[in-house]
Here is the input.
Amino acid sequence: MLAKEEQDIFYKKLGGLIRSARKNAKYKQEFLAMELGLTRTSLVNIEHGNQKIQLHVLLDLARIINVEVTELLPKLENDKSLDLNSKFEVNLSKEIEQKFDDRDLAMQKLKHFYKITQYKKR
Here is the structure.
């Protein structure tokens, strides 16, 4: 579990990566916030690391600005420079692998699961 200070750093970096990706995609805060069902203030707070982002919103955001969600996840700075992207992929794929006995099949199922669980607005 991350210490409070590490969490604060993580969310600041996450917000910075979200902001950079949004700007690279040439989206204004107002438009992206509306597309995500957020207020502009919420998006500003997420970009500054002052508000945590829900996972389904992060997935939607990545889809809208056309980046892989892993591109938005920062690396943690500690003794080993933990890479959350690879840790997430390895842990999740191992769980799926146990059910499917084949790493390639597990990764296909993981990608399919990601595709079908995209959060849809009603």
Observations:
- The first helix runs from residue 4 to 24.
- Helices lie at 4-24, 29-36, 40-47, 55-64, 84-100, 103-116.
- Residues 21 and 109 are 27 Å apart (CA to CA).
- DSSP finds six helices and no strands in the chain.
